[in-house]
Every structure is written in structure tokens, then in C-alpha cells.
């Protein structure tokens, strides 16, 4: 085992150091350790905590919410603006690990792990990643890369005033290990009862973060009141999204069917977002 640590003073310096494949970014370090086998690999760690752009939570002029990648998961869980503007992210952090871990763990670290609960929430919120060169890229596109670049912050657009949200996790609250699945959903309901602009983020053990695009398309042609946990059409759509993991697909379909069916019943956990 051989570990060394670099302390870059600028994002450009950190990004340049990361061109070496034997490097990894580190902030809290909690998720990074989970990806290592024993003993730890020979790595050069790039400490990003001293970089100013990775800190802070702020509303932008365009109404989006900018969250620095080094913001702790506990800060996200308790931040009033995050609860109002990114409720799925607050819900995900509320179900994640123990308090001591949430104080250390960062949003960027949970995202870099790819299996973290926050990934599902960020995808459902249509998050964009702010990169070291200032560009912004859709997180869903960025996750297609084998190796993630330095992410300074996440930008989340404002939720629609009539948008409903729900977050469901099957796993162990006290363990900082991947949930079996974590589902985050944002959706609107039209005047005719049909679902609109459905966005479903999913992550879990062995399931890197992704959108369930087949399920989203199928749901957007449905009325919430007609859905149920055993809906065959929904099960087929989710199976198309998770062809290599039929067990997780069945579980996800049951959760989605049950939760969508409760939307019309006024499920308190799915009320439209409130203004900050």
C-alpha cells in the first residue's frame, strides 16, 4: 500500500493532476474507502477541500440552486433552502447513514461513488455538474463516463410549483453501504389526471445512478389514479430499464406503482414543492 496526498490551490491544478489514472479526488473520504479492497490501492489522493468553488449553497439569479461539491450531507439534510428547492436531495440525506458519517461525507463524494443515495435525487432534479473549466454538463450525461472529472458544484433548476416528489429507499438506515435500491421521483399531474414530466432517478448496490427512461415515458401516458403496485405495463417498462437485474426491476416497479397510485389520495409525502 502506498498513499500520498496532493493539495492543489486551483481547480485547474486539481484537474491537471487527475489526468494521472493513479489518482483520486478526496474530501470527506467516507465513500472512497468503501470502494477500496483491502489493502488500500497505491494512489495519489487529490485533496479538494481547500478549493473555494467546492463550498457553499446559494440561489442563483436564474432561480437555480448551486450546491458546492464539498457541502456535507448533514448540511444538506438540515438546510431550509435545500428542503424547499431540492426536496428529494434533503429526503435522500435524511435516510442516509449515521450522523457522524453525514458530517464527514460530502455531496461530491457520494456522487463520485456512483451508487450513493444522493445520485438518484440529483438525477430526478435534473442536476447539472459544474466542471473545473466552468462548463456545465447534465449529470445524466456525465455519469456515462468511466471516470468522472472534477465536479465543483451541482446546479439544480427550480422545481415546478405543482411538482410532486417522493423518495423511497430499501436498505439499512444505519449503514453507510449502498441501498438495495434508492428511488427519487419528480412528477406533475395535469388537469385531466395524467402524469406529466415524470423523472425517476435510481441508484443502489450494483446499480450505478441512472434515469429510468422507459418507465418515465410509459408513466407520462398514464393517469395516476389507475396505477397500482402490480401494474403489468409499468413492470415491463422498468424491466426494460434494468434488463440485467430483474429482481431490482420488480422491486422498483412495485414501489413506483404503489406510490403513484397514492398521489391522487393526497399522500402528504408527495405534496407539491413549496416556495422558499
TrEMBL record:
<dbReference type="InterPro" id="IPR002346">
    <property type="entry name" value="Mopterin_DH_FAD-bd"/>
</dbReference>
<dbReference type="InterPro" id="IPR016169">
    <property type="entry name" value="FAD-bd_PCMH_sub2"/>
</dbReference>
<dbReference type="InterPro" id="IPR036318">
    <property type="entry name" value="FAD-bd_PCMH-like_sf"/>
</dbReference>
<dbReference type="InterPro" id="IPR016166">
    <property type="entry name" value="FAD-bd_PCMH"/>
</dbReference>
<protein>
    <recommendedName>
        <fullName>FAD-binding PCMH-type domain-containing protein</fullName>
    </recommendedName>
</protein>
<dbReference type="GO" id="GO:0071949">
    <property type="term" value="F:FAD binding"/>
</dbReference>
<dbReference type="InterPro" id="IPR036683">
    <property type="entry name" value="CO_DH_flav_C_dom_sf"/>
</dbReference>
<dbReference type="GO" id="GO:0016491">
    <property type="term" value="F:oxidoreductase activity"/>
</dbReference>
<dbReference type="Pfam" id="PF00941">
    <property type="entry name" value="FAD_binding_5"/>
</dbReference>
<dbReference type="InterPro" id="IPR051312">
    <property type="entry name" value="Diverse_Substr_Oxidored"/>
</dbReference>
<feature type="domain" description="FAD-binding PCMH-type">
    <location>
        <begin position="1"/>
        <end position="161"/>
    </location>
</feature>
Amino acid at each position: 500500500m502506498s498513499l500520498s496526498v496532493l493539495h492543489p490551490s486551483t481547480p485547474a491544478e486539481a484537474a491537471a493532476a487527475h489526468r494521472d489514472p493513479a489518482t483520486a479526488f478526496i474530501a470527506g473520504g467516507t465513500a472512497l474507502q468503501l470502494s477500496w479492497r483491502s489493502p488500500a490501492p497505491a494512489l495519489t489522493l487529490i485533496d479538494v477541500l481547500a478549493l473555494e468553488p467546492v463550498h457553499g449553497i446559494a440561489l442563483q439569479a436564474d432561480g437555480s440552486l448551486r450546491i458546492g461539491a464539498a457541502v456535507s450531507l448533514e448540511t444538506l439534510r438540515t438546510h431550509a433552502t435545500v428542503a424547499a428547492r431540492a426536496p428529494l436531495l434533503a429526503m435522500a440525506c435524511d435516510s442516509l447513514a449515521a450522523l457522524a458519517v453525514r458530517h464527514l461525507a460530502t455531496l461530491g463524494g457520494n456522487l463520485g461513488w456512483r451508487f450513493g443515495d444522493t445520485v438518484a435525487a440529483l438525477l430526478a432534479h435534473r442536476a447539472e455538474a459544474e466542471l473545473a473549466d466552468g462548463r456545465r454538463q447534465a449529470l445524466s450525461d456525465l455519469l456515462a463516463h468511466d471516470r468522472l472529472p472534477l465536479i465543483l458544484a451541482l446546479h439544480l433548476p427550480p422545481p415546478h410549483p405543482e411538482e410532486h416528489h417522493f423518495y423511497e429507499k430499501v436498505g439499512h438506515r444505519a449503514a453507510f453501504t449502498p441501498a438495495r435500491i434508492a428511488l427519487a421521483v419528480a412528477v406533475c399531474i395535469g388537469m385531466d389526471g395524467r402524469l406529466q414530466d415524470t423523472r425517476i432517478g435510481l441508484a443502489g448496490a450494483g446499480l450505478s445512478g441512472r434515469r429510468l427512461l422507459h418507465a418515465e415515458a410509459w408513466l407520462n401516458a398514464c393517469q395516476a389514479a389507475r396505477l397500482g403496485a402490480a401494474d403489468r405495463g409499468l413492470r415491463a417498462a422498468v424491466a426494460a430499464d434494468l434488463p440485467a437485474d430483474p429482481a431490482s426491476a420488480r422491486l422498483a416497479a412495485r414501489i413506483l406503482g404503489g406510490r403513484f397510485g397514492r398521489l391522487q389520495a393526497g399522500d402528504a409525502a408527495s405534496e407539491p414543492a413549496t416556495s422558499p
